[in-house]
Amino acid sequence: MKTSTVARAGQYAALLAYLVFLAFPFLWLISIAFKPPRELASLHPTWIPENPTLDNFRQAFDEQPLLRAGLNSLVAALGAAVVAVLIATPMAYVMARRRGRLAKAATGWVVVSQAFPFVLLIIPLFLVLKNLGLINSVAGLVMVYVVWSLPFALWMLAGYVRAVPRELEEAAAVDGAGRLRTLVSVTAPLLAPGIVATALFAFITAWNEFFFALVLLKTPEKQTLPVILTHFIGAEGVADLGPLAAAAFLATLPSLVVFALIQRRITGGMLAGAVKS
User: Which of 214, 252, 239 has the alpha carbon at shortest distance from 63?
Assistant: First the structure.
C-alpha cells in the first residue's frame, strides 16, 4: 500500500512538472504581451506586469494586417480540415476493411510518408501549383495542406474504422445496404469522434504551418498569420518584442478555442462508443 501511494505521488509530480513545462512558454508570452517597453527592457523581469498595457496590441494591429492574415489562416485551415476529412474517411474505410498485400502496402506507405521532410516536397508541389496557376493563392495552400495532412488523417481514421464491429456492417448488408450506404448510414456516425479528432488535427496543423505558406504566398494580402509574425523582426534580427508577443498571443487563441469547444465531444464520443454492446 505504501509503495502504491509513493508511486502515485510520483506520477502526479511528474504530470505536474510536465504541465508546468508546457505552460511556461505560453504564460511568459502573455506576460510579455501586456508589458510596456520600460518593463521589457528591465534587467530584472517579473512574471506579472507592474503596469499592464494594451499598447502592444494596438501597435501590432497598426503595424501589420493581422485581421486579414487571420482570415487567410482561417480559410486555409478550415478548407484543409474539411477536404482532408472528406477524402480520408472513405479511403480509411477501404484500408481498414480490405485485406491483402495492396492494403498492407498502402498502410505502410502512409506511415513512411510521414518521415518525408518539408524540403523534399516543396519543389514538386511548387511546380504542380505553378502549372495550375495556384501560386500565391489560398486555394493552392489548401491543396498543399490537404496533401500534407492526409497520410496522418488516414492512419488515424483507419484505427477508428477497425474499432467498429464488422457485425454492424454485415447486418446492414443483410438488409440490402451497399458499401456506400453502409459507410454513410452505419459506419460514419460511429466514426464521429475520430472524424472530429482528425479534423482538429488538420485544422491545427494548417493554422500553425509556416514553411509552405512562406514559400507559396508572395503578397502580404495573401499571407497567413505565422508568416505575418515574422514581419515584427527587423532586418538585423531585432524583434519588436511587445507587439510580436501580442500578435503571437492572438494567433494561438483560435486553436485553443477550437480544441476547448470540441474536446468534450471527442471524449464523450469515445466513452459512449466504449460501452456500446
Answer: 239
Q: Which three cell numbers stand for residue 57?
A: 496590441
Question: Shortest CA distance to 33 belongs to which of 260, 253, 209?
Answer: 253
List the grid coordinates of 128: 504542380
Q: Look up cell 511546380; give the residue.
A: 127
Q: Is the dihedral of CA 239, 242, 247, 250 positive or negative?
A: positive
Answer whether 114's CB lies under 8 Å from 152's CB.
Answer: yes
**Cα 151 from Cα 157, distance rounded (Å):** 10
- Radius of gyration of the chain from Cα atoms? 23
pTM of the model: 0.80
139-176 pLDDT, tens digit per residue, is 999 999 998 888 888 888 888 888 888 777 778 777 77
Q: What is the pLDDT of residues 113-131, one digit of tens each?
A: 666 777 777 888 888 888 9
Among residues 103, 213, 122, the alpha carbon closest in space to that of 161 is found at 103
Three cell numbers, residue 12: 502526479
Length of the chain: 277
User: 233 near 248, Cβ under 8 Å?
Assistant: no
Tell me the three state secondary structure of residue 199: helix
The residues near 113 (Cβ < 8 Å, ≥ 6 apart) are 151
Residue 122, Cβ neighbours under 10 Å: how many? 16
